[in-house]
Design goal:
The chain has about 600 residues and is mainly α. The chain folds into four domains: about 210 residues, P-loop containing nucleotide triphosphate hydrolases (Rossmann fold, 3-Layer(aba) Sandwich), CATH 3.40.50; about 80 residues, no CATH class; about 110 residues; about 140 residues, no CATH class. It has 26 helices and seven strands. The strands form two sheets. It has a five-stranded parallel sheet. The protein has a two-stranded antiparallel sheet with strand order 6-7. Strand 3, helix 6 and strand 4 form a beta-alpha-beta unit. Helix 3 packs antiparallel against helix 4 and helix 23 runs parallel beside helix 25. The protein is elongated and about 100 Å long.
Length: about 600
């Protein structure tokens, strides 16, 4: 009995409100699992892997399945892992728990189990494989040979929940391999997040063993189930809460429930925590709901999502390099704010590796342990390749709130800084251009506007070639066949950059410095062409520049730019005032 973890059973009282499915919810997924257990579907499958992102309700489903199976004589044993319980975050008590339940469900097996322990008193300190063979397989095989199950079938289900919360990843993989080799007429239901090691372990199972996979995705209409759950829970609060008389009418409003459903992103843990937080008997429910919705700040550090925060903290702390992982997600966050003209040509993973100075593959490695929270795939909306998606908006909220995420919070300012630095240093005034992956695909002015003008930033700006940055973007668009709006794009990028300089520097000196550099670059570009082509080039350049020039703060500088352009071919100035900035008929003819 000392080797057993009593809190790991599905019906233990380890918590006052254990997760289980609310009435009228998760009907489709529960039905599918029960059909597998009873042999109506996938009858030959030894194992069923129920998987999905963090917080989608896997444990609630597993507990509900156990409660449905137990009275029907279908449940042989269950084990619920839990990360913060030292008796449940390891496989050490697993076989002892299974053997204990076998002895309870099949009393005839008890003597066989006792004999195995009497024969080897240290059996429970042996390997998992040895324990399973002597305490589970051996006793059940002995009873089967005696004809024990010819009249009364062996309860088939052994249910294991939260395998990803076992802290030893090698043990996770060993357990999957062990169960897949079982020759008894049993069925193993394993619920977990789709972590890298667990996915690999299932993929490594012999092809002779049939494993059924069940992903908790949008096919099971989790959003509608969450809406039903919240509607029912809040209605119950409205009827029975001690402060129900203080509730406004109507409460809750339909829009509030819709907002909660949207915020949940299919996470039942989110909905459950909301209901529990609002139901606090010492607080006004309407105020608590406002806190959840962000309308009212929390009081006295009474945070509604402490349990969810603990889950996110655990997953991050278990990753290969938690701080690097947070940096990667931080840069991803600021890149999402871009309005880059070449957005559809971007490879987000490679850009982040460039910004953070990482090797190829480092981003995927850093995020490999977060597969239940983030996903790398192409963005069909923006056409970006290898974009990083948050499975739950609540995870991003957690990372951006330092009070919640503490050492794992995203430093947004630092992420803007490294993104700007990467771009500025990729296009130096002197020396070879850095061989970065698409630094021009960063919308520079968006990130510059977020930064203070430090000495380092000023130095990088002074040595930056805006002309090269601009032309690289335009060349990339041209090669991709996107030539329809090149002049408009040049116009927008030029105005954005010089407008940002004016805002950032609060003086004309820095602004004028870059204007002069920009014109020098244009002059050099034109002079590289034969004289016969210069007139056409200059006219084209003037057409492109006249719109952004109108918005520049320095009228004298506009005149200066125009003079420098037209002096290249010694033509008289064809305009009256900078405000008009129109090409004369002589130039157009």
């Amino acid at each position: 009995m000392k080797a057993v973890a009593p809190n790991a059973f599905h019906n233990s009282d380890d918590r006052p409100d254990p997760p289980k499915c609310h009435e009228k919810t998760r009907i489709a997924v529960i039905s599918k699992i029960m059909d597998w257990i009873t042999g109506k579907v996938d009858a030959d499958a030894l194992m069923l892997w129920l998987y999905g992102p963090a917080g989608v309700g896997k444990s609630a489903i597993a507990r509900t399945i156990a409660e449905l199976c137990e009275p029907r004589k279908l449940l042989l044993a269950s084990f619920f892992f839990f990360r913060s319980n030292s008796t449940r975050n390891t496989t050490k008590p697993l076989v002892a728990n299974i053997a204990y339940r076998i002895a309870c469900v099949i009393p005839a097996a008890r003597r066989h189990i006792e004999m195995a322990i009497e024969a080897d008193p240290l059996l429970l300190s042996c390997s998992l494989e040895t324990q399973f063979a002597k305490l589970v397989v051996g006793p059940l095989q002995a009873l089967a040979e005696q004809g024990m199950f010819s009249q009364t079938p062996l309860p088939p289900l052994i249910l294991i929940d939260g395998l990803d919360e076992c802290l030893d990843r090698t043990s996770q993989m060993k357990l999957i391999q062990l169960l897949s080799s079982c020759q008894l007429p049993l069925k193993f239901l394993i619920a977990s997040r789709p972590e890298q090691d667990i996915k690999f372990a299932f993929a490594s199972i012999s092809t002779k063993v049939i494993v059924s996979h069940l992903e908790l995705n949008d096919d099971f209409n989790a959003y509608e189930d969450i809406r039903l759950f919240l509607t029912d829970k809040l209605s119950n609060i409205k009827q029975h809460h001690p402060f129900r008389g203080e509730l406004p009418a109507p409460w809750p409003r339909e829009g509030q429930i819709a907002s909660l459903v949207q915020k949940s992103c299919g996470q039942f843990i989110y909905a459950s925590l909301v209901a529990r937080f609002v139901d606090s008997p010492r607080h006004l429910p309407a105020q608590r709901l406002d806190i959840v919705l962000g309308i009212r700040p929390p009081v006295h550090r009474d945070l509604p999502f402490a349990e969810l925060d603990a889950l996110y903290t655990f997953i991050l702390s278990s990753s290969i390099d938690p701080l690097l992982t947070v940096k990667v997600l931080g840069v991803r966050h600021v890149l999402q704010q871009d309005f880059s003209m070449v957005r559809e040509l971007r490879d987000i993973v490679r850009m982040i590796e460039g910004i953070l100075g990482l090797e190829s593959g480092d981003v995927r490695s850093a995020l490999s342990d977060l597969s239940s929270l983030v996903e790398i795939k192409d963005n069909m909306a923006t056409l970006e390749r290898n974009a990083i998606f948050f499975q739950h908006s609540s995870f991003q909220d957690f990372l951006l709130n330092k009070e919640r995420s503490k050492e794992y919070s995203i430093d947004v300012l630092e992420c803007h800084r490294v993104s700007v630095q990467w771009v500025l240093r990729a296009f130096p005034r002197a020396g070879p251009r850095a061989s970065h992956i698409m630094p021009d695909a960063v919308d520079l002015h968006v990130h510059l506007l977020k930064l203070p003008l430090t000495a380092e930033l000023k130095h990088d700006l002074e040595n930056f070639s805006f002309h090269d940055y601009l032309e690289t973007q335009l060349e990339r668009l041209e090669k991709a066949g996107q030539t329809a709006n090149l002049n408009l794009i040049r116009d927008r990028l030029t105005k954005d950059f010089f407008g940002t300089l004016t805002y950032l520097c609060q003086s004309s000196e820095f602004h004028d410095h870059h204007f002069n550099l920009f014109i020098d670059d244009i002059t050099a570009s034109v002079n590289r062409h034969p004289s016969a082509e210069k007139f056409h080039l200059l006219s084209t350049i003037w057409f492109v520049l006249q719109k952004p020039l109108k918005s520049y703060p320095s009228t004298e500088l506009s005149v200066k730019i125009a003079r420098q352009i037209f002096e290249l071919h010694r033509a008289p100035l064809p305009f009256v005032t900078p405000s008009g900035l129109s090409i004369g008929s002589k130039i157009l003819s």
